[in-house]
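Minimal example, chain plus guanosine-5'-diphosphate.
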Amino acid sequence: MAIVAIVGRPNVGKSSIFNRILGKRAAIVDDQPGVTRDRLYGETEWAGKKFYIVDTGGIMSETEHPFMDLIEKQVDLALDESSAIIFVVDGRTGVTPTDEEIAHKLRRSGKPVVVVMNKLDNEKQEDAMLGEAYGLGFDEVVASSAEHNTGFGEMLDFITSKLESEEFDSDDGEIRVTLVGRPNVGKSSLLNAFAGEERSMVSDIAGTTRDVVDSVVEMNGHRFRFLDTAGLRRKSRVNTDLEYYSNVRTYQAIDRCHVALVLLDAQDPVTEQDKRLIGQVLERGKGLILVVNKWDLAPREEKVGDVMTKKLIEELPFAAHAPRVFISALSGRSLGKLPELILKVEENRRRRIATSELNKLVKEVLVFERMPGDGKGHSLKIYYCTQADGAPPAFIFFVNDSELCSKSFKRHLENLLREMADFSGVPIKIFMRNKI
Ligand code: GDP
Ligand code: GDP
C-alpha cells in the first residue's frame, strides 16, 4: 500500500483533513504515546485503492527545530517516503512566502501533488482566493472546507488516480519473508547473515514509487525474498523523525509478506510494541515465527530455554501456536533452523482440510458438546462446514443462527481445528453463516 502524506504550514487544517479522510472507515494502525498528536497515520481506501495516510504535522515538535527548518525537514521526509502529496494551504490567510518555498521543493520532486486550499467555507471566498492557489504552479488545485466536509471527493480521486495498483499475490514460487521488530533487535544482522553468506541478488520491484530493494536468497531449494531491506540497510538515515514512516513501512512489508519473522530481544523479550506487531501480523493473515535473538546474552541460568518458552506463551497467548526459535544473529547459532521453519509455516498457511474431515468434526465431535445458546432455549446448531479458498485458512460453519455463537465457542472451534491439522504459526479465521 502506498503512503500519502499531508504537508503544509501549521494551522492550515492538516489534521482536520486527515481526520476527515479517515472518517469512520479509518483504521488507525498504530498509536504512539508521548507525541503531541496521538493519531498520525492510518489506513484508508478510496476508489478501491487502499493506502496509508500520514499527517506530517505532528512528526516534529516545534521546540526542537526552528520553524523553517521544521517545515523543510517535514517536506523532505514526506517526499522521500510517500507516493503522493496533499499540500494544504490556508484559504483565509492566502498563500504565504512559506507556502511558496514548500511549493518550490514539491515541484522539483516531480511527485504527484494536489494543492488543497482549505478553510474555504463558502463559495464567495473560493472565487477570490483560488487564483492564489493556482499561482503555486501545480495543475491540480482543490477548494476544501474540512469544517463542512467539501472538496474531499475531488482530492481523493486525484490522489488515487496517481497510485499504482499493487498486485503481490502472483504465485511465482517465491516465499516472501519480512523481518520485523523493534530498533536494534538485530534485523539487519539477521538479514546479513542470510543474504551475506549466500549468493544474494538485489532487485527492484515495480509498483512502488519509492525504491524498494529486496534480497533474494536461495536456500533449501527454495527462493526466499526478504522484503524491503533498503529500509534496514539505510541505517544512517533512521532517526526518531523517521519513526512514523518506518512504522508504516513495517506494515507495508507485513502486507506484502507470506511469513513474518518477529524478532524479540532475549534480554527484554515482550514489550507492548512487540505485542502490537505480533497482533498485526496475525490480523493481516500472515505466517508468524517468533525469533528470540541475542540468545548469547540470555541469562545463564538453568533451563533458560524453558523459562523463555513459558514467558512467551504467557505473554502472547494469542500467538501460542507460533513456532519459537532462539538464535544469535551474531554467532550464527540456530540460524540453520529458520529456512525450514519458514517453509513449514507457509505450508501451514496454505493447508486445507478435506470437507469430509470437517464434517466428521461436525457430526462426530460437536454433536456431543454443549452448544452456546441464548438462555431461552435456543442453542446453536451446526449443519456443516467448509474451508474457503485461499490463505490463511478460513472455515465457514453453516448454522441455524450465527448470533448464538459466543467468542469462547469460536476459540474452542479454533482449537479443535488446530488439533486436526498443523496450523502452527498461522491465524485461522472462523465464520458463522446462517443456513437458509
Ligand atoms: P494543522 O496544524 O495544519 O494540522 O491544522 P488543524 O487541522 O489543527 O486546524 C487548525 C485550525 O483550523 C483548527 O482550529 C481547525 O478547527 C481550523 N480549521 C481546519 N479546517 C477548517 C475549515 O475548513 N474551515 C474553518 N473555518 N476552519 C478550519
Ligand atoms: P536492527 O536495528 O534490528 O536492524 O538491529 P541490528 O542488526 O543493527 O543490531 C543492533 C545491534 O545488536 C548491533 O550492534 C548488532 O551487532 C547487535 N546484535 C545483533 N544480533 C546480535 C546477537 O545475536 N547477539 C549480540 N550479542 N548482539 C547482536
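The pocket of guanosine-5'-diphosphate (ligand 1) is lined by residues 8, 10-16, 57, 118-119, 121, 145-147 (CB under 6 Å). Confidence is low (pLDDT under 50) at residues 25-39, 197-211, 233-240.
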